[in-house]
């Protein structure tokens, strides 16, 4: 028997037991695997399309669904999606990479690439409801028109999450108004203590999107060089005309 195949199958079975998906730690526990092993297998299964990651949980991907689909109904190859590139960018940059969009009035985190030695920020407070407190959310809010931004903040009021968080709506709006077009949005310990983040806007058709990275506070000197590296990687991919963001 090939052990790695067996372990991957145990993970797929664990994913199948959760209709709404489950996070890596839970899947590792249910499959009886060490977390680093589970991370590597989950990354491979995601890269191959058998799984997809949404809002911090893993679900079956198109490749897994194709296993039971009729031949005529199977998915055909399409443009390179953002998820196909995040793993490579994480490895090149040496930091977790996030992608989010603003869709139907809400923040949607559609993909995250991390690893045991470069873990993503834990979603301890809903990313959707706390856009004011993290870089990727602020970057998306900055791209909205005034009416859409006010509507969002009516539904998700500004509230400080840490002692470094923006304190009120007026302060947040002033910060967003002073951002120069295309510049990175920097957030220092506003969402999670000990973590600093930077986000950049992404133009992909009519989609309002952003990408971000995070680094530990003691590596803050890496933040700006890393986000500029991410900007270059994204720009290169956009120029290839084979890029799509799936919502």
UniProtKB/TrEMBL annotation:
Pfam families for this protein: HTH_IclR, IclR_C
Segments forming domain IclR-ED: 65-247
HTH iclR-type domain segment(s): 2-62
Highest taxon listed in the record's lineage: Bacteria
Keywords annotated in UniProt: Activator, DNA-binding, Glycerol metabolism, Transcription, Transcription regulation
MF-aspect GO terms: DNA binding; DNA-binding transcription factor activity
GO biological process: glycerol metabolic process; negative regulation of DNA-templated transcription
Chain's role: May be an activator protein for the gylABX operon.
Name listed for the protein in its UniProt record: Glycerol operon regulatory protein
Organism: Streptomyces parvus
């Amino acid at each position: 028997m090939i052990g790695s195949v067996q372990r991957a199958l145990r993970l797929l079975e664990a994913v199948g037991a959760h209709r709404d998906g489950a996070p890596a730690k839970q899947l590792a526990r249910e499959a009886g695997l060490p977390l680093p092993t589970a991370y590597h297998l989950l990354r491979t299964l995601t890269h191959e399309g058998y799984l997809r990651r949404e809002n911090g949980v893993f679900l079956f991907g198109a490749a897994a669904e194709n296993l039971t689909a009729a031949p005529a109904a199977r998915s055909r190859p399409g443009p390179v999606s953002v998820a196909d590139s995040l793993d490579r960018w994480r490895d090149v940059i040496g930091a977790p990479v996030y992608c989010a969009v603003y869709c139907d009035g809400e923040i949607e985190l559609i993909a995250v690439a991390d690893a045991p030695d470069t873990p993503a920020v834990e979603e301890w407070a809903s990313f959707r409801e706390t856009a004011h407190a993290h870089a990727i959310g602020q970057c998306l809010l900055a791209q909205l028109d005034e009416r859409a931004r006010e509507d969002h903040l009516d539904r998700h009021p500004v509230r400080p999450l840490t002692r470094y968080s923006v304190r009120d709506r007026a302060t947040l709006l002033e910060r967003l108004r002073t951002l120069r077009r295309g510049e990175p949005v920097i957030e220092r310990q506003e969402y999670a203590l000990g973590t600093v983040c930077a986000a950049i806007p992404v133009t992909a058709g009519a989609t309002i999107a952003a990408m971000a990275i995070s680094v530990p506070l003691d590596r803050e000197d890496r933040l700006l060089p890393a986000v500029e590296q991410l900007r270059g990687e994204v720009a290169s991919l956009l120029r290839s005309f084979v890029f799509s963001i799936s919502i």
